[in-house]
Amino acid sequence: MAAEVSKIQDYAIIGNGRSVALISKRGSLDWLCWPRFDSASIFGALIDPKIGGCWSIRPAHDSHVRRRYIENTNVLETTFVSDTGKIVLTDFMSVTSEEEKKRRLWPEHEFVRLVKCEAGEVPVVVDFDPRPDYGGTNPFFKDEGKLGWRIGVGTNLLNLRSDIKLPANGNAGLSARLTLKRGETISFSLTFSKEGPAVLPPLGNLVAEKLKLTIEWWQRWAGRAKYDGPYHEQVMRSALVLALLSYAPSGALVAAPTTSLPERIGGDLNWDYRFCWLRDAALAVRALFSLGYEDDAEAFVSWLLHATRLTRPCLNTLYDVYGNGIPREKTLPHLSGYRNSSPIRIGNAASEQRQLDVYGEVIEAVSHFFCSEKKIDREAQRMLCQYGDYVCRHWCEPDDGMWEPRTPRQHFTHSRASCWLALDRLLDLHKRGLVKGLPVERLAQTRERIRSDIEQRAWNSKLEAYTQVLDGETLDANVLLLPMYGFEDATSERMRQTHQRLREKLCPKFGLMYRDGRTETRCEGAFGICSFWEANFLARCGDLNEARRVFDAVLEYANDVDLFAEEIDPETGDALGNFPQALTHLALINAALSLRDAEERASKLERR
Q1: DSSP string, 457-489
Q2: What is the largest CA-CA distance in the chain?
Q3: Which of 248, 254, 313, 504 could form a disulfide with 17 if both were Cys (CB 3.0 to 4.6 A apart)?
Q4: pLDDT per residue over 87-141, tens digit each?
Q5: 8-222: CATH topology
Q6: Cβ distance 335 to 51 under 8 Å?
Q7: Whole-model pTM above 0.85?
Q8: Of the candidates 591, 603, 597, 605, which has an alpha carbon nearest to the alpha carbon of residue 235?
Q9: Contact, 328 vs 339, CB < 8 A?
Q10: Chain centroid to CA 140: how far?
Q11: Burial 233-257 (b: 16+ CB within 10 A, else e)
């Protein structure tokens, strides 16, 4: 069955800390990879509507649609209102406490769908069409009677149970047509198991209990937040997105749960983001720690230290959720791609790039996390010393940069500033007595050499701006991070002039910003992260009204449930790139934190 093509922003996300599902406004499950984020898709209509596979539950006739997450949860409700009545579709992946799991059998991977008629009567269409292995396999279906359908997926099993009959449709799928009357509810449970007997969840009233337990689990998680600043609703939704993109068994954070959603419709800027970029580290730790999620921040730092131990003193750009290397990038030519945007890639060749900025991000993450009374163990101290030595030896060399262009290496300003950041934070850790054995004088001297290099070569007096590369003439939004790193005050003349040039040259509309000034960048969308960097910068400048104006402007491009992709099409406002993207939501949180801190400082000054 061919699925209808939805806009990227028409999707919402649910999950359980191990995998996620993307569900369209039409009630179609179009993306699900089990058992983990980077597994092959079981439902993949997102990247090929004809052969990818989907699971659709929808009214038979045209309906008005509205969606919401149940407050402070990742439980999605989609309401369909037609001429004849109203139904509510509730989607969630079951999750509960470890204590509850000990009390009863609980499947590790379960996707639950509930449909309730709340008014009138509504004809409903159900089409279940899994296509494992990125649409490359037609699964084997076996009717197990009261135990539902068993679906063979290689050596793995799917089990689909429902309280309605789902007959085979003759096209390697299941279909049903029924009419729901007011007060009637039907439920579906899909589970995944690897080799061995599956845990089959009960249906009926226990599905309602499972929904209750899942809601309670998420609301307890959300209740741990200590944030009381501006944009509270958007900050909490972003935090809940990060929880979905975190792999609970290891603490890793994936960049996005999807692959190959295009940065240019019909183009080839399609990448696999289902891995863990070290660059996200510092932003993630600051966001989680500042919001009160210290356990989550600690889990991520533990993963970070584990993953980087395996390759030290060299750091890879990205790792899988267990801290291992990722598979070589390859394409899947049998898939058409989202709106014919091909190729579809799995794996990511950026893992083979050299990106010196990751040293600064890793050490900044460790520094931020250990700002309290926590101690750094000796092995981690030795590792950090090795990273400091590596930076001292290699800071002046070219690299591939944070935007990962597949072009010759250059001397990127941001990479150079991140090397400065690495040494600055190491010296601070030494000063606090957390890291011993550092060659302090060498690190301090190298730090000053890097500063001098940036100040002399990254500043273009003709442009009156910091540039993307040393001795260059191209602008880059990532220089707005210099104040966040502590390299230069946001109120300095150079930073104010740089910001002005970025607005003049990189902003197609107020609140939107391209990542850099290269001509080919205009073929992409504006980057959401750059907009939140600007809001963050303005907050640090003390220009609170302008910071809020930018923040409000970019929020207009979130979808109806406050989710962001990587990019925004300035012409249409449509989402572009992988969805939802951790880095955009991290930048939102950190911009809100900076705005809160700036408002608190301003309030204290007013009271004096």
Answers
A1: HTEETTTTEE-SBTT----BGGGGGHHHHTSS-
A2: 77
A3: 248
A4: 999 999 999 877 766 677 778 899 999 999 999 999 999 999 999 999 998 899 9
A5: Beta-galactosidase; Chain A, domain 5 (2.70.98)
A6: yes
A7: yes
A8: 591
A9: no
A10: 33
A11: ebbbbbbbbbbbbbbeebbbbbbbb
